[in-house]
Write a structure and sequence with these properties.
The complex is a heterodimer of chains A (113) and B (114).
Chain A (H helix, E strand, L loop, with lengths): L3 E2 L4 E5 L4 E7 L6 E7 L6 E7 L4 E4 L2 E6 L4 E6 L8 E8 L7 E3 L3 E6 L1
Parallel strand pairs in A: 2-11
Antiparallel strand pairs in A: 1-3, 3-8, 4-5, 4-9, 6-7, 7-8, 9-10, 9-11
Chain B lengths: L3 E4 L2 E4 L5 E7 L5 E7 L5 E9 L2 E4 L6 E3 L9 E3 L8 E8 L9 E2 L3 E5 L1
Parallel strand pairs in B: 2-11
Antiparallel strand pairs in B: 1-3, 3-8, 4-5, 4-9, 5-6, 7-8, 9-10, 9-11
Classes of the chains: A mainly beta (113), B mainly beta (114).
Chain lengths: 113, 114
């Protein structure tokens, strides 16, 4: 059973506009959430994370929002750049699972110049 | 530079053959992980290890084996019992189970069946 879900397999956005990637989870014990960026034939690169005690974390053009009541998190990229085109994975973990991470299926973002 | 090194980048296996994928890290991380990625799917956990000489099965451990004799190394053997081994394999490491820290990944090994 998929505990972390990314329901949009792909997203296209114009350069300079906002990209919003969404992620839902089912396990209320998750207390740490992350976003990774992945290019083809490479490993995922850590982008940004958020602890369950916060509802927002910002790092440059990237902001992650967490809505615990809805079990939903999102990644906002503003402004989007062509170099942001990649597959984005969200992941979640809970301390009582020994830091085992659960990954979504990914969203392929294309930023159109 | 600290990081995770996976080798080889591409690997071919004959039917009935065992193959071993290498993963080395110099980040001084306690925990190491092996994932498998198939097209259109997320990363699925095969095995993980929180400390040397100890490891646990993940969600899809059947047909795989691992060892953790050194902190820096976590090799994965894909045995002949794994009926569908063609996939992209990713190794990761993190500081340990008691810390909210991200996992860092290697660049992966693509395994194909001849």
């Amino acid at each position: 059973d998929q505990q972390v879900k990314q329901n949009s397999p792909s997203l296209s956005v114009q350069e300079g506009r906002i990209s919003i990637l969404n992620c839902d989870y089912t396990n209320s014990m998750f207390d740490y959430f992350l976003w990774y960026k992945k290019y083809p034939a490479e490993g995922p690169t850590f982008l940004i994370s958020i602890s369950s005690i916060k509802d927002k974390n910002e790092d440059g053009r990237f902001t992650v929002f967490l809505n615990k009541s809805a079990k939903h998190l999102s990644l906002h990229i503003v402004p989007s750049q062509p170099g942001d085109s990649a597959v984005y994975f969200c992941a979640a973990s809970a301390r009582n699972t020994g830091n085992q991470f659960y990954f979504g299926t990914g969203t392929s973002l294309t930023v159109i110049p | 530079d600290g990081g995770i090194t996976q080798s080889p980048k591409y690997l071919f296996r004959k039917e009935g053959q065992n193959v071993t994928l290498s993963c080395e890290q110099n980040l001084n991380h306690d925990a190491m992980y092996w994932y498998r990625q198939d097209p259109g799917q997320g990363l699925r956990l095969i095995y993980y290890s929180q400390i040397v000489n100890d490891f646990q099965k993940g969600d899809i451990a059947e047909g795989y084996s691992v060892s953790r004799e050194k902190k820096e190394s976590f090799p994965l053997t894909v045995t002949s019992a794994q009926k569908n081994p063609t996939a992209f394999y990713l190794c990761a490491s993190s500081r340990g189970k008691d810390s909210n820290q991200p996992q860092h990944f290697g660049d992966g090994t693509r395994l194909s069946i001849l």
